[in-house]
Amino acid sequence: MPVLESRLSVGELARRAGVATSALRYYEQLGLIAAERTAGGQRRYARAMLRRVAFVRAAQQVGLSLDEVGAVLARLPMDRAPNKADWQAVSPLWVARVDARIAELERLRESLTGCIGCGCLSLRTCRLYNAGDTAATRGPGARWLLGDTPPKPGESTGM
């Protein structure tokens, strides 16, 4: 059986990996996966790409960006499925990032019932903790959820 015939079409890879064909084309454009082309220009993927797509999806589920995924996948072999030694070499690269994500989610869980999104974490005391939207002076996003400490009611923000 010729090599390209043993490879997966874009539709087969999409079905087996549980992603849209457009996602696969995008992953290929970013260099996360690679395809060979048939004489007619159709994409054919090595079966090792299934593992790479699974890795991309798992990383996205824990909040990692495609840039972060790409940096790690660039260290792994493209021509074969990564083995245990390959994974052990790259996994420490994300430990700090995953730990930071866990801490962020724990902060969110602790304040989830009162947060309305501005970062002050309370519908009732919003006007006290975030009077005049002082949280905005600290940067974009929900500042208190991101780890900034809100002032105590009546305390100046010092900004």
From TrEMBL:
Q: Name one GO molecular function term.
A: DNA-binding transcription factor activity
Protein name per the record: Redox-sensitive transcriptional activator SoxR
Per the record, the gene is: soxR
What keywords does the record list, in alphabetical order? 2Fe-2S, DNA-binding, Iron, Iron-sulfur, Metal-binding, Transcription, Transcription regulation
A biological process (GO) of this protein is:
response to oxidative stress
The answer, when asked if Iron-sulfur is one of the entry's keywords, is yes
Locate the region Disordered.
140-159
Q: Would you say which domain of life the source belongs to?
A: Bacteria
UniProt domain HTH merR-type: residue ranges: 7-75
Known InterPro entries for this protein?
DNA-bd_dom_put_sf, MerR-type_HTH_dom, MerR_fam, Redox-sen_tscrpt-act_SoxR, Tscrpt_reg_MerR_DNA-bd
Q: Does the keyword Repeat apply?
A: no
Q: Which SMART domains match?
A: HTH_MERR (SM00422)
